[in-house]
Amino acid sequence: MAKNHIRYAGAGFQAKVSPSRINRFVRALPEKKRQSLFSVAEELKSAGLIETTGEITHSHAENIDIDK
What we know:
This protein is α+β, with helices and mostly antiparallel strands. The protein is built from three helices and three strands.
C-alpha cells in the first residue's frame, strides 16, 4: 500500500488494508468519533488498519476538523 500524509497534520501513514475497508470502517464509527481527523486516525490506528509514521497530537485535533 502507498504511503500517504494526513492533510494538515503532517503525519504520515501507511494503509494496512484496502481503501474500501477503511471507508467502511470510518462510516461505521459513531458521528462524534468522525468529527475530527485526530479521532478518525486514532480509531484506524487502534483497529490496526493504518500504521502512522509521525505523531498526531491533541493539538492537531483542535485545528483539524473533517468537513461534513
